[in-house]
Amino acid sequence: MKTLVLAEKPSVAREIARVMGARDKHKSYMEGPKYIVTWALGHLVGLAEPEDYDKKYATWNLEDLPILPERTKLKVLRETNHQYKAVQQLMKRQDVGELVVATDAAREGELLARWIMQMAQWKKPFKRLWISSQTDKAIKDGFASLKPGSQFDRLYESARCRAEADWMIGLNVTRALTVRFNAQLSAGRVQTPTLGMIMDRENEINGFRSQEYETLSADFGDFQAVWRAAGGDSRIFDKQDMQQLKARVEGRKGSIAQVKKSEKVEPHPLAYDLTELQRDANHKHGFSAKQTSNVLQRLYEQHKLVTYPRTDSRYLTSDMTGTLKERLESVAVGPYASLARPLLRKNLNVTKRIVDDSKVTDHHAIIPTEQTVLLNQLSPEERKLYDLIVRRFISLFYPAARYDSVAVTVQVGKDSFHVKGTTVKDSGWREVYGGDYTDDKDDDRSNDAGDHERALLPDLQQGQSVTLGRCHIKSGRTMPPKRYTEAALLSQMEKHGLGTPATRADIIEKLVSSDTIDRQGNSLHPTGKGKQLIELAAPQLRTPELTARWEAELERIARGQGKPGPFLDGIRSMAKELVSTVKSSKAEYKPHNVTNSHCPDCNAKLLEKKGKRGKFLVCPTEDCGYRRSNEKRLSNRRCAQCHKKMEIKEGKAGLYVQCLPCGITETLDKDKQHVNKREQQKLVKQYAKQESIGSNLGDLLKAAMEKQGK
């Protein structure tokens, strides 16, 4: 009997087939003496649509909501139907006696495999391949230690509950909002509270009132210090108070009231999980969370250089300890050689800060594999992300950074001046980063507390007399909180338990694609649609607390501590409540993207939307469907006044050309449209083949023009 292996993607299936000796290639699978390896294309089976339960649901009506079937159905997805049929036929083969689930070792991977098995009515035994990298060694080791499929039943139940909850909440609330307010409005149990956090920050910014302030720094000869009030604030908001302070201290003698020296020991940062890597990639390279996920997947799957990406753990497991030197050897090339090779000459210092089985759930942290890297084969994006992972991995085995922090307080009469300094004693792990001591954390709040720079200080003793020379007044303004970057938003989503490492990037992308938030540089701004949507959504769906509780309950189900029944009952009740809130709403929705252009078919004002190919205009009338590009189109006709090419426009009477700076408009006569020389030559060649007696260039062009005009 043969074993059928179900991978998640064709690329992964090819690697497994190669390693396990399945070399006979077929259209939808590969076969060998012992294994048949096939694949899904993401999900082949999904939850049925409302119209699959009752045809009346094909039309969106408010009175039909909420739609809450007693038992959920599955359906084969139309776009991947061909591959499902191929997998189903393989499952029914008489010579197949066992299945190995080799989809991604995570909640979503478990779900897509179980749904396929359920739809195809698989009744035979099955096992689970659970690996954290795609190297040949990892695949062989994984097949040598396959786990019982039943060991992952709880993970499947958690995934099923998540899918059904998203269906019940997302579908019902989206339909209710869309029908009630006659606009394409999407809501969900994770995306809506995420939008709510962005909107809360926007409200903080809009409600902020900036104030002018001044700070005073004083020159003490060998060093400078900043005046601070008793509470530690260096800002003075009254100019008269500042002038009085300056007059009071300038030129006076003072003394060193306190010299506080303390040795700081800063341990290496923890290894990366997905969210921390997405934050760093956004902060240092401007990558979006989705971009990081995509690049990381290529490093994992295509290049086999890193371990499983979608992890929420920042620790390694004890069974990996013996592989750490081999991984260091694989990265000891190029710029990393001088950093990794000294570690290979001695025993590695593996501490609880690196290896801790109790803090690893499904997958360990993201680290390099034993695969030797060829840096020149990586794209610039891949190279940058790989650099972050490798440097973080190498830094795990470096000692703590040690430095002396010196805080000096100077007393001049009743006024205190403060300065801080740093003396590096041992760069430790910071050597891996070039000895950089800048703070890498993404601070999404404003900082108005004054001067935080650390100075180089002379040797100062407590009680030492000093003279205050000149005073320098520096003006500033209080700043509002910063808008979220993706790094800062990911931190907030993680803090509030919104989504998982695998889904957070997709949630942000969904908000962007639905035109509820907009990327402007590295900042996320709510759009006019997003601002209205958050007001139209039910209050309990706007905040992260409810969704975070759901996510925690899903995790409990995965661990066997919670049950699906009560969780889904709670979701059903919530769906009813949320729909009821929308139905009874007295609010109004006004499209934020209405243009002055009219639909040529029904005369409604067109809406401007963003697509992958740029901006386009679409008619809001449900049964119209008119749309066209809104990108600037230039004609060959030039303005009689400025001689620049005129823009092609479309109005009720058809196409026309316009010069916006000069205000000149001309109609386009379809029978007299200009044909350029290249088009003439093409037409001449086309008609020259039709040799006829007495034909000449004029006749040919005339025929060509007549044909084009038809």
UniProtKB/TrEMBL annotation:
EC category name: isomerase
GO CC entries: cytoplasmic replication fork
One Pfam family, short name: Toprim
Stored SUPFAM superfamilies: Prokaryotic type I DNA topoisomerase (SSF56712)
Family: Belongs to the type IA topoisomerase family.
Transmembrane portions of the chain: none
Name listed for the protein in its UniProt record: DNA topoisomerase
Taxonomic lineage of the native organism: Bacteria, Bacillati, Bacillota, Bacilli, Bacillales
Keyword set, alphabetical order: DNA-binding, Isomerase, Magnesium, Metal-binding, Topoisomerase
Catalyses which reaction(s): ATP-independent breakage of single-stranded DNA, followed by passage and rejoining
EC number: 5.6.2.1
Domain Topo IA-type catalytic: 152-579
GO MF terms held by the record: DNA binding; DNA topoisomerase type I (single strand cut, ATP-independent) activity; metal ion binding
